[in-house]
Fold each of these.
Amino acid sequence: MSGILVVAEHDAGVFRRTAWELLGKAAALATELKTTVSAVVLGDAPAADLGSAGAARVIHVTGDFATYSTAATTAALNAVITAEKPDVVLAASATLGRDAIPRLAARLGTGVGTEVTDLRAEGGAVVGRRPLYSGKCFADVRVVRAPAFFTVRPNSFPQPTRSGAPAPVTAMAAPAASDGVTVLEKRAPSTATVDLTVADRIVSGGRSLKSKEAFDTVIRPLAASVGATVGASRAAVDAGYAGHSEQVGQTGKVVNPTLYLAMGISGAIQHLAGMRTSKVIVAVNKDPEAPIFEHATYGLVGDLFEIAPKLTAAFAAS
Amino acid sequence: MKIGVCAKFTPDTDTRIKLRPDNSGIDPTGIKWVVSPYDALAVEEALRLKEKHTGEVISFTVGGDDTAGLLKGTLLALGVGRAVLVNDPAAVGTDALGIARILAAAAKAEGLDMLLFGKQAIDGDNGQVGSMVAEILGWVQVSRVSELTVEGTQFKAVRAVDGGLKELVAGSLPAVVTADMGLNTPRFPKLPDIVKAKTKTVEVKNLAALGLTAAEVAPAVQASNFGLPPARPKGRLLTGDADQMVGELVRLLREEAKVL
């Protein structure tokens, strides 16, 4: 093995949790495979700090990467990989991992194990385990050409302890690359709450709400009372009670919170696919036969219009 | 405007996935095949671009013997002008790059202004093929697009980026665009159009016709050891009236689940 390369992403110089998460996992894999971990950083960030989580060296591509560019990102990573020749490249499943990594894999004639939730060393190589059909089933994935790219779903691995020494840093100037795509405007999300895909608490409403007004006056205050992000079933979104960006399920967001409250959601297969890995699931539904109860940690059979306001008050008081 | 759209057929989202006995993949028995929902957004957007700017929509699909019939009842019935189907035994079991090489080869000859994809297909959930085709063709790409306009040789698109942010971007055609929810609401084919489409022709090609060899689509990514998700531990139903259930729930969330 000539090593594992981690794409360490940062926001304005602060490394993301996924950067540390990937480094921690890469260090464990490298120990098993008797190889080393290096990291690549695009743009201005304290690159040497990555040594604390196991990076033996860091390649720091200098240049302006503050606004995401497919062409600049792909060209920079291509230059680093061509020089370093890693066997395995790990990136988080986020914009860079979804947009640039496949393009880069095509440039290098290799493949990507997409959005894995586990990685292991086996037979001298890295093998991924990943959900398919939005988590209705899982499979092992191997990439039989080099480098083997894997993108990793956030929160798949624990945050490592950071005790190592600073890593030596090699600077590289960003290669010139532009595809002529310019960003005219950045639009912040309409709510101040955490994005569904990384939310720790979610309150979702279903078709039983029967109107947008009910959704706004029952579900949103309940979510606010417990510091949760609002989600919705496809039926609720199709009926116009909530926005597309709030849909949880196979054709919406796949979520992984600690607490998921399903309010008036029957539990269609396509919804379950998006939230079944939630650690604690609470279901409120007036139909005791609703499939959601088979997956709920705690089930409340009753009228959500009666229960939700009481729950809102109880959460607000606690 | 000459608009291409790549679409595949996937199990309907209501499908309960079953596995083959040897865990080598899913059991396709009894599955209802639909245009992958994000691809359906791409098809709708292609039709709208054609209606606004005039021109032609050509679809590209990699599939099997049953796929031509599915294409007639869906894309051709909706108004896609030509449907190209690549059907070749060497393409079975290929990976995203193999599919991308096939689609790029099929699209290259058509002189397209834009090639639309869904942001991902809802079976493999890979979301790689659009970016890979853009690379092979040497075109710009914009991923996860929820608004799109074209004026002359320029496009504007709203894309999703990290942290729930969206960006309005501009660029030059030809371009690959991948569709996200919110882009549009796909129309359904009308019954008379479905009947009429039965007499339309799907253009079937093999790899050789595209100048590709089996070796060029040999997979770099191999999937094995399929399994179903682990069952959740059995939960409990709370009892009593609404006040009692709510009180008990808050207590359990705090003391037992320890999530409050």
Amino acid sequence: MAKTDDRTDYLTGTDKTEAQSVLNTKPRYWEHRGNRNNMWRLFNFVLLAAGSLLILSPLWWMFATSLKTMAEVMSYPPSFFPESWEWANYIRAWQAAPFTTYTINTITITTFVVIGSVLANSFIAYGFAKIPFRGKGIWFAIVLSTMMIPGFVTLIPQYVLFANLGWVNTYYPLIVPHFFGSAFYIFLLRQFYMTIPTELIEAAKIEGASHFYIWWKIGLPLTKPALATVAIFSFNGAWNDFLGPLLYLNDENLYTLQLGLAVFKGQLSTQWNYLMAGSLLVLLPVILLFFFFQKYFIQGINLSSGGK
Amino acid sequence: MKKLRMPLLILTSTTLALSACAGFQTNNSSEGETNDDGKTVVDFWSFWGSELRRPVIDKIVADFNASQDEIEVKHTYSPWGDIWTKELAAIAAGNPPDVVINDINATAIRGQENQAMNLSEFMDDGFADKFYPELWNATLYEGDSYGIPFNTDTRVLFYNKDAFEEVGLDPEDPPATWEELEEYAAMLDVKNGDDYDRLGFYPLWGVGYDVWLLNANGENYFGEDNNVDNVNINTGTNVEVLNWLKSWRDRIGENVVNSYQAQIDSQQGNPFFSGDLAMLVQQPTFYTQISEYAEDLNFGVAPLPEYEPGNGHTSWGGGFVAEIPEGSSDPEAAWAFIEYLTGAEAQEYWAVENFDNVANIEAAEAAAESDELSEEGQMVYQMAVESMENTLLTPAPVEAPGFYNYINPHVDEFFLGSMTAEEALAQAQADVEDLIQKNQ
Amino acid sequence: MEKKRLTIRRKESIYGYIFIMPFIVGFFAFTAGPLLFSLAGSFTDYNITSRMDFVGVENYQSLIVDDGLFRTSLWNTIYYVAFSVPLTTLGAIFISALLNQDVPGIRVFRTLYYLPAVLSGVGVYLLWMQLLEPGTGMVNLLLGWVGIDGPNWLYDPDWTKPSLILMKLWSVGGSMLLYLASMQGVSKSLYEAAEIDGASRWRQFVHITIPMITPVIFFDVVTSLIGGFQIFQEAYIMSGNGEGGPANSLLFYNLYMWNQAFENFDMGYAMAMSWILFVIVFVLTLINLKLAPRWVHYEGEEK
């Protein structure tokens, strides 16, 4: 049996079942079960590795293309390995447009979007999940409804709106709306908050805590994996956003990475090697961020049982 | 709450600090822009951002700016295709740029919808004569021009001279009719079991079926004057042409066709470069790719073969215009720039540097003889200029926007074998007539 | 006592509105106006730049009564949603279950499986066109190894939508992340208890994991349903510049709407289309919400 963490918190007091009161920590539950488990782990590993190949093979093509000369890209039939490994493509791609400026711009926008998304959506979602109030159903329906109208038809009026605010050619239209929540994340975080036991919140309230305090001190820490997900998604969304910067930015000095990548794709021909090199470079920070952000999942806290 | 205050404080202060940065400065002074020197600023949007095109257009802009001291043109690149969504939004908000490069085929519709300005009032008599008439006519709505032709293209036949020689064909005598095309193609085929080591030709790589219809008819679906009163889709000739196209597909085999097609569609690995395909219909600018990716290829160019001897080598093209969006803050200055952009000097420079077909006749003819082109380049460009004489555009009539969306699916079904040519064209004809009726 | 409870309830209501206030403010400031505008526009012949005259229900009428392409596009979209939503949901659950194990190199695996979700845009779709090439493309090459003669994918109208679904499956990494976050929240003690009772791994998965992640399954189903109905860019790129071919098999609802709005400038018509879609999706979501209490299990809910 796993070691028991005997720190108490709101939950341990309210927990009903014995199983739930046993708090987990490493080592994992299966580690004492010998051979059968090792077989199981091997099976998992093989399955995952096979899947990785499927996932990776398209990416290999991207990578290989990024290292070919254009003459090789255009040769028929396509080659699987680059003939000469043109690492210089990466440098040339980077220099084909002011990508350093674009990176700074993209980081600026993305930072605000992530902060806004995490704070606002979590705040709003807590309200929908954990506070009973009149009209909640209707407001939640409105939240969901905002996802259901295709963006194309609101694109023009929204642009006119921001133009009237004098926000065209600034980052405001790309950032500010994220500080007011968006349906997808509100819904997502609400689902996670719903799994926090109501008794936990009641207990805190009895001790005199306000909802703000509960949200900040209990809600946020308990939904860390979900917040990490929102952070990753919104980072990804802002980083890869094409339509927003396209519409709202008129000054090339304000352009973002995705707009920069578009220079490789012309009307008649595409500079595939540069496009792929550029895409991979742009992708790199996202991958790294994800790789290191994962610990928030691994150290995730048991929503259903509280714990840790 | 106390813990909340700190992050919020940091957030607010960064916001304030950043609001000094460019992306956070709001700016309402977009009307009647002038720069610090008191020059009128003309905002010019194009989709020419590649390493090849960007320096050329920037040089033209710089030359224009240096040529006078009243106007300063500011060129902004915006991605291909999406640039027009952006333009539309800007027009709707009443704050558009002053000059935009747009698709020639929808110019009349944009005139009708008040997206582009009527340019007739700006131009002198005889201005229109500088451009290929087919291009000019495509810019007209109710007799007025809503965009000035900038560049254009046509379709010509590229062929592999070495392959010709190898099978005993005269490399200086490319196929002139559809019959010869078929005959030569069969001779050029090198079969290897079910596969091909070399394929002579397939008519639908590089162009669509509609180009062959145009070539056979010598006019588009709506007659010479693009009038929707006569819709000539379901005609005997068209049935014949579709069946002819299908016969290629049946002969070569679906799998081979799809395989090559996918390669060409993905804009990578062109079999013409490697000699696996002996003939291919393409735009003249395809030459830039040959010279870059297949330097040693010994190739020739010819006009599109004709349907029957004497029928005419009708080809198909498109192009782009420079237009002034409705709501531009200074149309006069914008016009001055457009005049320069479509003038002989700028056009020749563009033509030679980009190896692109231009709309200005004088410039096109000068470019074909330019010393800056290689001998091969001159040969291709000369062919392009000749082909322009027989090149038709297929702008959508204002009563039939997006009409090809009503024809293509039926033709697809014909090629897939689920309809006969007669059935497909009859349905297409009916659908397009419906569309016209709805819009009239 | 009565009175006090009332004030508590009222206080809670005030709190509730304070919490959702950012959304309300943002809704009225940025969203409501454009939404209403598009609703109003759907009863006009709005062309974005110069015209907006009232035409009554004409747009709706001609859409429903005599627009064949509208029906085609709706059918294509429903087909796509009907297959892609269940398949991607199952796929994501399966992969996240694998990734929730203690396997060497798990962080690398997680990153790899998430990768496709990060890749976006035109490049990926063009990449898939290459992979799905019937002759030498990788997909058919792999199928060939196991003795299957692969279809013509994007060239055969019967296989174009499955092509897109396949591509969608490749990038389930996004929803995988959600499930992973949710599975991380499942108390290990539950498994331990089951272990003691001698429950098999499969039974543990079915009886513990699945019920505990139903809130996220519910979320995933609802949002991918909404998102599935709005499929656009894949089809736009992979069907030859938005034409929806071959044989209109990729003419999805939003693609047709886009063509009406931005190619033909018939924005009023497109707006009418968007509100018809809204009604369809809203009804489906409502059904989902009504059915939810039967299968979605919120651990924190008071019973």
